[in-house]
């Protein structure tokens, strides 16, 4: 049996019993993730600028002109178009349209292109990525049908 005072204390925790003098904060600047975001010197487009700096580091190691020629080579051209296109879309959706959903989708595309880029430099990286993707798809399909 619970006591009446315990029940009264539980019902006092409800929304209707809150102090009306105290304002309710509905801003997005509360919580751990927003405090981490406040440390980002690039603002909302930090991921994209980080990706550009990532590519710039490869250009610094290989030499800028040699890296541009490498990115424009026939085997790398699909990556170059997809990656730079996803960077442009992310910047446009975040800074131009201010659309959170479209920015998130283009950032996911950008991450997939970055993964493709990194895996392509490992020995047998693309075939391993194809194998892991097909294995994951089969496991997901088996999980959904069972």
From TrEMBL:
Transmembrane segments: 47-68, 77-95, 101-122
Role this protein plays: Nonessential protein required for the fusion of transport vesicles derived from the endocytic pathway with the Golgi complex.
Coiled coil spans: none
Subcellular location: Golgi apparatus membrane; Membrane
The name this protein goes by in its record: Protein transport protein SFT2
Membrane-related topology note: Multi-pass membrane protein
Keyword Transcription applies: no
Family listed: Belongs to the SFT2 family.
Primary location recorded for the protein, binned into one broad class: Golgi
UniProt KW keywords: Golgi apparatus, Membrane, Protein transport, Transmembrane, Transmembrane helix, Transport
């Amino acid at each position: 049996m619970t006591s009446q005072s315990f029940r009264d204390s539980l019902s006092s925790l409800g929304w209707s019993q809150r102090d009306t003098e105290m304002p309710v904060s509905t801003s997005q600047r509360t919580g751990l993730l927003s405090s981490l975001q406040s440390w980002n010197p690039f603002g909302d487009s930090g991921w994209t600028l980080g990706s550009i700096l990532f590519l710039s580091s490869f250009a610094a190691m290989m030499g800028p002109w040699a890296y541009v020629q490498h990115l424009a080579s026939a085997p790398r051209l699909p990556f170059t178009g997809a990656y730079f296109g996803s960077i442009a879309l992310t910047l446009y959706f975040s800074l131009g349209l201010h659309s959170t959903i479209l920015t998130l989708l283009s950032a996911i595309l950008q991450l997939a292109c970055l993964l493709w880029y990194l895996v392509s430099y490992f020995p047998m990286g693309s075939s391993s990525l194809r194998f892991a993707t097909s294995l994951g798809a089969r496991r997901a399909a088996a999980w959904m049908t069972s």
